[in-house]
Amino acid sequence: MPARLQIQAKDCSPLGLLILQYLEEHHISMNRLAEMADIPQPRLRGACFKGTCPTPETLRKLSKVMGMHHLELYTLAYEGRIVKRPEDADDYLDSLIRELFETAREMDLVPPKQRPSKARIERALRELGFAHQDERQVEKIRTLRSL
After folding, report:
1. Residue 21 lies in a domain
2. What are the HTH cro/C1-type domain coordinates in residue numbering (predicted)?
3. pLDDT for 91 beyond 80
4. How many angstroms separate the CA atoms of 55 and 129, rounded?
5. Whole-number mean pLDDT of the chain?
6. Domain span including residue 127
7. Looking at residue 42, what is its pLDDT?
8. Is 30 exposed, middle or buried (0-12, 13-18, 19+ CB in 10 A)?
9. CATH number of the domain bearing residue 97
């Protein structure tokens, strides 16, 4: 049984909350997780707190041990620090990225080793319902005419 953590959830960033959850679910200590990820324990502990900036290397090492893509951890670590677009973006982009990775994990899919081409990304986005602004305008006009 791991020692009781001295880190409180109220002091944690979204990444920190995920780390605490992982420790609890796997019944391991923070020292053990740091050892498994080859990260100094103080660095791992520091990554848990609000306002900290874990290095990409720390996130990559941690992601391997936790069985997650490092971009998922990066999104959690820097949540709230990314300047949001003024138009209705709110948490849309963050939730979209999380949903993609969560769905892939549920389907036992792993991220591609190489970045997909722009053409493949565009095809996938269109299948998800993305469209050019002009196409949206035409669609709205057709809808209004049919009423």
Report:
1. yes
2. 18-73
3. no
4. 34
5. 80
6. 117-147
7. 92
8. buried
9. 1.10.260.40
